[in-house]
Each structure stands twice: as C-alpha cells, then as structure tokens.
Amino acid sequence: MKRNFTRVFLFLWLTLSTLAAYAQGDALLAARAAISNGSSRDLAQYFASTVELGFDGDKQSYSATQAEFVMKDFFAKNASSGFEYIHKGASPEGVPYAIGKYASKSGSYRVFVKMKSFNGAIKIDTIEFTKE
Predict the structure, then answer these.
(1) Cα angle vertex 83, ends 132, 112, to 5°?
(2) Does pTM surpass 0.70?
(3) Where does the signal sequence lie (predicted)?
(4) Residue 44 and which of 32, 69, 113, 132 are 20 to 30 A apart at CA?
C-alpha cells in the first residue's frame, strides 16, 4: 500500500512539475513573440495587474493598462528589427525569467523579463530595457 502511494505521489509531482514548466515556457515564448513584433497589445495580455517597467535604469510601476501604453510608446520610438532570448531560467523559488537582446534602428537593448505566478497563471512582473 505504501509503495502504491509513493508511486502515485511521484507521478502527480512529475506531472504538475512538467505542466508548470510548460506554462512558464509558453508565457515566455508568447512574450518573446510580442516583443519581437513590437506589439504592446499582445504583450499586455501577459501583464500582471501591476507591472514594473525599466528603461536605462529608470524603473516605475504601472497598472497593466498604463504599461501597455508605455510599451506602445517605446515600440513606436524604437521599432523592432528583432528580439531573441539569450538566456532563460528560474530563480531558486521557481520565478521564471529571461534575458534577451532587442534590436531596433535606434540601437540595441538588453532586455530582462521576469514573470511570477498570479492566481495560478504565469504573468509578466518586470521588463527592463537597457541600451547597449
């Protein structure tokens, strides 16, 4: 009986871990596509209710609606010519993040995207753009 319980527990744990990793990867991929396309509307679908945005060290918290307009303005001034992740990972607490490079005609930016789980959904908590 104990052995069956252990097997069931192990199976459930592995299944839930796999689903959590898939959800994180899916949200990071969607964010990458939205940033690459310069689409504030698509990106905003993954915003938490409050988002921290940073541009060259100047960070501010915005509501999701405000953050969408801030990103729309950024993309209008710095039209995308490509965006790719250089590194993806998770903190010891399981917070997924990615570091990427955003290219535009006005220059390149290093981008840091940090996500968090909000009510079971993986959402964007922080995006920072630093001009290279």
Answers:
(1) 60
(2) yes
(3) 1-23
(4) 132
